Amino acid sequence: MAFLTEILRYMAKYDSKLDVCFTALADPTRRLVLSRLSRGEASVSELAEPHDMALPSFMEHLKKLEAAGLIDVQETGANAHLCAC
Q: Is the pTM of this model over 0.85?
């Protein structure tokens, strides 16, 4: 019971951060992106290619992952590479 109490205290302290993280993980497209990035960095176009959606829609998924602190975007000129944090 003490362990559960400790977990609940931790969750209350970081509630807003956890909400952002769990929201990001709730979508299957975003989970697939994280799965791909677990094998190494990739460009935006490489990540978007297997998904049947417009690039602006895909970019919204990346923004949510970045806001949750789950991916890191490294911009080099006109290109961007992403990696899992």
A: no
CB atoms within 10 A of CB 66: 15
Q: Is 48 helix (H, G, I), strand (E, B) or coil?
A: helix
Residues 6+ apart with CB under 8 A from 59: 44
- E-strand ranges in the chain read 42-43, 71-76, 79-84
CA dihedral sign of residues 79, 37, 72, 22: positive
Q: Contact at 8 Å (CB) between 74 and 82? A: yes
What is the rounded distance in angstroms from the CA atom of residue 2 to the CA atom of residue 19?
24
- Dist CA 85 CA 72 (whole Å): 6
CA dihedral 40, 45, 47, 53 (to 10 degrees): 180
**pLDDT tens figures, 28-74:** 999 999 999 999 999 999 999 999 999 999 999 999 999 999 998 88
